[in-house]
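Possible regression after last week's pipeline update?

I re-ran a chain I had predicted before the update to compare outputs. Posting the input and the new output here so someone can diff against the archived version. Not blocking, just want to make sure nothing changed silently.
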Amino acid sequence: MNLFSVEMKAVTWQKDSHGLFDYETQLLTIEKHVIQQQQKVYRLGQEVSTYSPDSEQDESQQYLTTVQEQGNKFYINPEGCEENENFLIVRSLKNSQGGQKGYKMEPGDIIKLGRMEYVIMETKDKDNLVNQASSELLKDQFEQTASYVTSSSAICRFCLMDTQTLEDPFISPCNCKGSCQFVHFNCMRQWIESRCQIKQLNNAQSYRLKQQQCELCESLLPLKIRMDDKELSLDVIQRPSTPYLIMQSRHKKEKKQGKAVYVIQFQNGEPIKIGRGHQCDIQISDISVSRLHAYIKYQDGNFVILDNNSKFGTLVKLFQAYRIEEEKVAVQVGRTVLTFVLKQQCTSENH
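New output (post-update):
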């Protein structure tokens, strides 16, 4: 017999708008469920229901998530929810005093502010420990091994010079052949920098980076080139000496104009403000982002994001099962918010 059950409160916004949930609206449908064993959660219209894992549902029902039970422990399991991604709601995470404790960000985390999504690419703490996102997220930033070109016919396709040095060798960074095969390393780097817009912000630098690919053969360009015992970097992003965090936008509409990359530095203990307003360190020009949407703090060696009671919330994508405990935790799935809390069941011995 299970010693615990899960109380689930389902709140659905009656308006369907880009998968958002309005945290200020009164147009809500509210339901409550008690879950004692593993259940799948579905929504049909405004109604949220739970079913056993082996039951088959009509295609008109939207699968939201699974409440998984293992040995008197319950988890929110987002597996199979690709069409309805599960996002942890940052403001639902509370400390022992009942205040918002925030979410500790790690490389690979996907943060959603309104409808705008950002991936945490890299962090460096006060001990100079650098962490990067997984290779899957960095799949367009690969390394390439090369050797010094000895061909007497090699000519740089940019400057048309036929000489090279140990500091500025010829490289072959793409699939082009013939007269377009070789380019000086420094010429290649200058070309990449010319395609990058850099802007200095209060406590950050923003980069607008177009995808690094050859304009002729369209193959992706490497981020690093290893030649013998040294490494040549084509990465134009400058890293500060203080603790920093790098986050990159991930929006399809930015394919032509390039990705927005923010290098946020923490040097005076002040939180970084993110929002639509002019007072923010990171300004995001989208109507779904509040004027002062969220804060990022560097505290106790961690990069922590906190929500500022924003209209459409600050969210973190769930990639794996998240344990439900006695403190309330909430996830957003499209226009539905599911709040979970673990409860001890009453038995005859308790009376």
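Follow-up from reviewer: compared with the archived run. The chain has a mean pLDDT of 89. Marking as no regression found.
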